[in-house]
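Contributing new records

If you add data, match the layout below exactly. Sequence lines come first and carry their own label; structure lines follow with theirs. Keep one chain per record. Anything else will be rejected by the validation script.
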Amino acid sequence: MKILVLGIGNILFGDEGIGVHLSNLLKLNYAFSGENEVEIVDGGTLAQMLIPLITSYDKVLILDCVSVNNANVGDVYYFDFDNVPNIITWAGSAHEVEMLQTLRLTAINGDLPPVKIIGIIPEVIGEETAFLLSDAVKEGAKQMESLAIQYLQENNVIVKKVDDRDLQEVANGSFRGY
């Protein structure tokens, strides 16, 4: 089985890049082995351009920001795309709306593999370029990381920690790619 871990977000806008930053952190800090293949991809803001990639996997885990009314910055939500809780609006930014539409389009065509989403409430999605993550999102990202590892282990992936890079350090270099 092939499993895709897909980091979504715009790394130029602080917390909004958390999906990409966390996917990079997983690449750097862990080794994956076992009967199932894991690929970790920086999906950035590519949205519909990701459809061929998404459909080539048996399972997909998406790391992203989500919007939830009356939620606190750093709150983490973990859910199936087939059963998105009503409180999740995914309306925080253009890329998130496009990602939601991308998943819906892929599902309509009957090509969408099972998708799980780990989303976090960002502090500010603004217009100023910034690589700095808010303290609340850095703290919440620890839970996101743990949930991602748990998901992979539940899918018979052997996960071994090989490094201990700091999330902000990784975020500072995400523009270079990992």
